Every structure is written in C-alpha cells, then in structure tokens.
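User: Fold this, then the next.

Assistant: Folding the first:
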Amino acid sequence: MPNYKSKQGKIFAVGPRGEEVALGIKGINWFGMETGLAIPFGLWANDMNGTTVYEVARFLAKNRFNSVRLPLCVSHILTNQKPQQDVINIQENKAINASTYMSALSSIVQTLAFRNISVLLDMHTLTPFESGGLPWTSPTEATAFFDAVDVLTAQLCNAKHWNIIGLDLKNEPHLATWGDGTATDFQLMAQRIGNCMLSKCPTWLAFVEGINAPRTLAIDGKSFAFSDWWGGGLEEAGDKPVELGLESKVVYAPHYYNPAVYPQLYYLKSGTRAGDTIINYEELDDATLALRVQATSEHMFGHLRKTQEGALVMGEFGGLYSQDLHPMKTTQRATEALIEIMKQPGYAGGYLWALNPESAYQFNPSNTRVTTTEGLLDETWLNVNEPFLRAMAAMDSLPNLRSFPCFTP
C-alpha cells in the first residue's frame, strides 16, 4: 500500500520501492455518514431518484474527480452504528455491506478504490446532533475521540483500503484557539490526534484545519474586519506549526466559502451590513474580486506556503453556484477565483462542497436570507448540475492531477 507524504508543497504517494508520484486533488465531499442515517445520502436507488455507489464512482472518475472526503461521526464509529436500512437500496448497492457502520465505510472505500479514487476520512461530528466546535471538552471525551481514531486505523489501515489518504483530524474547530497552551489550543489537540493516528498508521496523512477568530486586513488601502471561515483560520500556524512524530505528514486543510454561506464585505465594491446580510451593495469587477479572494485566502492560510514544506489542500470550498442571484454572479466568481488560487505552487487541490443536492445555503444574493439547496447532482441524484460541473472542469488543469496509483508489491 502507498505511503502518503506531504512535502515540497505537494502530496506524494510513495511506492514499495521508494518511487514517488505527485498528486493533485480534484476532490468532492459526499456527506451523510456523520448524520443519524449513518450512510452517505443518495443510495436509495429507485425508479424516481437515488443512485448507487458504483454510479457515483463511475461519474466521479469520468469527470476526473480523484478523491472523496467522507464526513464521519465519532459516536457512530465507537458504537459501530447500523446504517438506516430504508435509505439504502441493498439490491442495487450490492457493493455495500450495510450491516454496521464500519462495514459500510469499508465497502464504500473499496468501491471507490476500484476507480482509483482516494478517500479522506473526516472526523466531522461528535454525535449526529453535536458537530463539536472542539474535538473534546473533557478527559472522557478526549479518550472517546482517540478510541475512535484507533478503530479507524485498526480496521482500515491496510492494503485492502490502500486508497485512504489520511484523516481530517477535526472538522471546523471554531471554538478553538491556536498556540496559546490552553485547554482549547487546537495546535496541541491536532498534534495529539495526529500522533495517535500515526502510531497505528504511519502511512496516512494528518489533515489539519484552522480555527475561527476575528481579523482585520487592509486590501488596496481599504480596511476590512471579518471572521475566518470556520476551519479557515491558520494565521498563527506559520509561527506555531503542527509538528508530528513523523516528517512530511501534515497537510493544512482550510475551508473557504462564497457569499452564499455568509456575505462578506470584501466580496463587494460597497454595501452596508444589515445583520447578516449586506444591503445596497455594488459588485466588483472580475480582477478586483480575484484580488480580494487572493488577499483574504493568503492572510488566512496561503501564507503557510512560505513557512512550511507541506501541501495546502482546501478541505471544503464552493457552496451555491448555479442558482446565484447576484446580477454579476459574485457567488460564482468567488468560487472560480479560489479554484485558480488552488493551482498556485504550494497548493495541491481541494474538496468541493458537495456532491449532495441537499446541501443548504442561507444567502442569495448577499442582501437576502433564504434557504436554498444545491449540489453537483440535482435533487434526483440521477442528473448532473451541468453549470456547476462545467465550472469544476477548471480544476482539470491542477498540477499533477491523476488517478491515485495502486502500487504492486
């Protein structure tokens, strides 16, 4: 099985004879296992809607997606929760063993491996009802978290699951601090989780997200006050990096979203904050918007390319696309600008949010609070959101984009 490494601003799969293959990631999130259903959404294939894991893998490979981020639930791992059976068509999804949580996860990973698609396991929620702004808040919770990591490494770190690239150590630790040595210090938490993983599975990578904190930034002489995107705040990681027991194992995996998730003044030429919306707004031209995305992403996490050797991979990005109601399509253009940034040296791609049509967004356009759903597939899970898919084709020019190699001994 490959040994995955993060160095020279790239991700490498290292074979049994030391051969190295650089890999860019055109990835996508496929959620559901972190919820009460305990299975990725969409697998209820019937005459009207739903699909199969075979079809998902075939579709992704056809469109050059080479990695899937699977959000998981800590409590489901520990109890080996049985997936909800009435949302899986077992006859059509013969590849999936849905008798337990871990058997379902194992079989999904193996089905994706058949198409040479890698998997990033994501410690997304603590329970189906608690996302967890911290990995733990007590010694008992910490023990449970490490036990869940041990279950994953014990059952999945083997040649049968060669395509697992690593573990996203905790999704969006937005209540954490960084580098202050307190009980909420995610730098220290990430080091503990990463070393726990590596002690049992030295071939995986540790994907490390950022925190959430208020920031100020001057762009072209204009000052902006904003908060990091949840998971995006890695401003302090340059001076206080995550250091693990093995070299070349850290991938910083920030999140960065468009205005459909939350309207930001830096996305606009002008406007007035009114609660969470921005009223009387005026949109930016393409070049200035791209500059704003570059400046804010560089401030949050892009600066790490200058201070550390590991790769940057966007753990989540995107959001609403085809339904953008901004007259000048600011929501679309923000995502397009970030994709271009992902092609710069030091980045190794990212994971679009999301395959699922159930993904919900609260703002469209920036002056209007709504609830809108959109994913790369439409609400039937049978048809493609063509404008979104065309936009993602821009990732096809990522450096080193290729299928993940399955090395022979």
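Now the next one, as you asked:
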Amino acid sequence: MEIQDQVTNVELFFPRGITADYLAEVDESIKEIDSQRPLQPHITEKLQSEILYDRVHSSAVIEGNKLSRRETIVVLSTGIIEAGSRKDQQEVINLADACIYLQECLDNKSPLSVQLIKEIHQKILTNIDPKNAGCFRSVDVAISGAKVSPPSHLDVPSLIESIVRLENSAEAHPIQIAAWIHWAFARIHPFVDGNGRVARLVQDYVLLKNNYVPASVQPEDRERNYYEALESADLGNGEDFLEIIAKNVLRTSERYLSIIRDEQSKSIWIEKIAKAASEKVKQTEHRKFLITQKTYDSLKHEFESICSELNSQLTDMRVNFKDYGSLDFEKYLDLKSKGRASRTWLFGLNFKYGEIDQRFIFWFASHYRSAQDIRDFGQNAITILLSMQDSAGGYKKLEDFESEDRITLRELLVVDRGFFRKRYNPVSRNLEWDEDISPTDIAQNFIQEVLAKVGLI
C-alpha cells in the first residue's frame, strides 16, 4: 500500500470488541462532564492547571525526560531553570507553552492546519534547536529498530496536508480520529526532532475540539506497549493503539470528574460554613442594631415628650414634632457596609410663631472620621446629623451654614448605650465633643438654643 493510502486510512482504528467498550465508557464520562457545564471559573482553573501538569510530564517522560512530576510542577510554577539538565527543564516549559497556545487556538475556533502544526513545533524546540524549529525535515531519516522507514522528506509536505485535510472532514468517533492522527503523524515523522510531542499535542487538539479530554499517554505505557502498538499500526493493526488512547482518555475523564466533584464538594462546604458564619455575624450585628435603634429611639421619644409638654403650655407658638419611624436593619447594614442609605430621616421639628417658621430634620448617616474626634468611633459608625431648612425651602446640614453659631448641635453618636455629642463652640470656633450626655439634656439644650435664636427667650 502506498504511504499516502496508509496514513489516510482512518478505518485502521475502527473500534471493535474491547476498544468499543472503552469508547462507550468514555462517552458516559464525557456526558457526565458535559452535564456539569458551564463549570465555575475556579473549577475550570483547577482542571486546566492539574491536567496541564499531567500532559506535560507524561509527554516529556515518554521522550526520555528525567524530571519527576514534582520537579515539572516547580519548573512550570516558577519559570526558573535551575541547576541540572537545562534541556529537560526547557522541554517541559516548551510543552506547557505549546499546550496553552493550542488552547488559545481552540478558544478562537482555529481549525487544524499545516501552519498551526509548524507553530506547535516551533514552540516545542524553542531554545533547544532553533535551526530546525518549525521546519519540516530536509533529509531522509531512519528510526533505529523500526520495521518500517519514514517516507522521503520530499513527500512530507503533501502527506501532512493530506492528514490535515482529512482531519477537518473525517466522520468518525473523536477518539478514533485522535488515535489515527497521532499514529499518522508519527508514521510520517515530518520533523528532525519533536515528532512524538507534536503528535500527542495534535491528538489532544482533536479531542478537545470535540469536547473530549486529553489522552495523556502515561510513562508506564512507554515501558509496556506504546511503541509496540505504534509499530503494530504501521503493519496494519491499529486496535492496540486505539485501546491505549481510549484508556488514557478514560483515565483523564475520571480525573476531570474527580476534580469537579472535589471542588464542588469543597464549594458546598465553604458555602455552608460561610452561611453559618454570616448568620452568626448577622445575629451579632443585629444585637448591636437593636441597641442602636433603641438608644436613638429614646432620643426621639424625649424630643416628642418635651414638644408635647411645651405645646400644652404655649398659646401663640407651636413646636410640631414629626415621627418618620425607626431605623430598620437593612438601612443599618447599608450604612455600616456602604456608608450611605436612602430615606433615613428619624424625626422632624417645626418651630412656628407668627411669621417664624423654623424647620429641622434629624437623620441617620455614617460618621465621618476626623482628627477632631474625641475617640475612635470605628468604621461607618451610625450617627445622627442635623439639617435645617434654608431660605429657599431646601435642607442643609447645620455645619454647612457658615453663619450659624447660635444653634451649636452638629452630630450625635451612640457608644455603649450612651450619647456622644458634637457641638460648635462659637468662642473658639472649633467643633468639640462631649460624652455621656442624656437624651433629656440633648433635647432641652437644642430647643432652648432654637427658642433663643428666634428671640422667644
């Protein structure tokens, strides 16, 4: 049979008997993997890194590389070539680079091509054999101990074009196509060096393109029957080689599933623990919230009570009190985590006497830390700020009124059920804090200052 007919004979690897059973098992595993898609990003990242180490180490060792799997991982993780066999270390770096490049090509849906094969080979021999990297051999070669010889170097370009063309059109099981193209590539032996590594990468490209997993041919396969199975296919029997590829696809698929299950189990555990911890934190925060809510409500009720008593004794003047409700837990959490929340009014006051109509709003906010603080109140401490209606009918914080020095209250903050009060000192023109102030004192001082401002006392 002519070499052209030999290397394009995909039927040489038609699954029969045991190999057909292996393919059926693989399909079940792939079906289970597909059922998990789309995978969470951290699982995809874990799969890519773990399987990359397997692919690189196994492919390198088959070619005689002496690095252990641990040493391979160290080299790939650090990118540092240490003392020892620089060639061995460069080989695994190049293999990893080629694997990553092929994945990028797959992501871009690039078809297999002669150019792509040369680019893979270029990466495989980077810093090892720059003269031959990415170039088909220009001489005839013989493989020591082999029963058949590779074709003439003159036939290499057309033969590679033939298998590329067939791969893009062949209708067969992906593992059958992968086993065939692996063998066909090795049979043509298109490069001076690196043929096995490129053949295994092209094989994996076919598998991954069809949503299967790589067939990382193991070092023990080399010791047992990898080369014997390739030679058997050279002589017209591809069943043993198909079985090797199918077994390794099955092994990798089980590795995929193991990683997926482990990571999903870990994710479930983390989610469960995080939920429990979050609930505990939320319960603790809720207790703090209840104390905060109760303390600020005591202030509100004190203002309401004093206003009611004043109104019962005043004739021409009213101090109207407007309750806007209590701080709720969701807004409390927003203020604590984001530093802001909407609609946080606690209560309003309206001092009305003849033409005088002075309005104030007490509202919740997050404390802004400053050098003038009497102590560290913590990040986003819940505070009460005070706004006053201006001449245009809008509201501004009292501290934003440049000439307002008769009403001194600026901020109220709860710490351990007690109040800290920030006031403007018109003498020193500074903001000052006092502590352990009762709600009664706060309400009385404020109302007295407002009445003094409008000239009623």
